[in-house]
Amino acid sequence: MPREIEGRLHEACPNDDFVLWHDPKVVTAVVVQAPGGVLLGRRGIEPGRGLWCLPGGFVNDDEGPLDAAVRECREEIGAAVDITGLVGVYHIAKSDAPSMVGLGYSGRLVEGEKLEAGAEMTELEVFPLDSVPDLAFPSHRQILLDFVRSQASPGGVEAPRDGAAARRSERPSRDRARWPRTRRR
Predict the structure, then answer these.
(1) Residue 107's domain spans which residues?
(2) How far is the C-alpha of 25 from the C-alpha of 99, rounded, in Å?
(3) Cβ atoms within 10 Å, residue 35
(4) pLDDT tens digits, 153-170
(5) CA separation (Å) from 158 to 24, 87, 163?
(6) d(Cα 53, Cα 72) in Å, to the nearest integer?
(7) Does any domain span residue 8?
(8) Which among 30, 105, 147, 169 could bridge 93 via Cys, Cβ 3.0 to 4.6 Å?
(9) CA distances in angstroms from 54 to 30, 112, 181, listed in the order given
(10) Does residue 18 form part of some domain?
(11) CATH number, domain containing residue 140
């Protein structure tokens, strides 16, 4: 039975104090820098099967986000990654599932590590930043854009100019994330 709590309706038990809170899931994504650009994987599973994405995934309840980012890289690209920074924190609105809080990190392959597509990826490729293909998730596109901005700013990471890391979420999109094409001279 719905009950109003703090100005919002929530599912709640009429007989006791139980409230069903719809909390977001926590996910990570890592911009893995490699010679020649950034590493992307082609997804072998839904959602986004066949499209490119950053390595990353859900944070388990027994690990911190940084540990999850490193674990997901190991699982998806078969290599250890050193996390070098936080790109941003993002609200990822969903219409058909719980929303998510995404943590975008930057990282580099640990020296001597060999890349190998994990069970959720069909292939891996390094793309120059001016040739990134369409991405499976709009949040990954935003993380890459914010990463590029942070590399261009003196002193490293800066707050995204458009407020991407802190803005209110927009309606979820089912469109693929398109990377803005830059012109070569």
Answers:
(1) 23-152
(2) 6
(3) 6
(4) 765 544 444 434 433 344
(5) 26, 9, 11
(6) 13
(7) no
(8) 169
(9) 6, 21, 18
(10) no
(11) 3.90.79.10
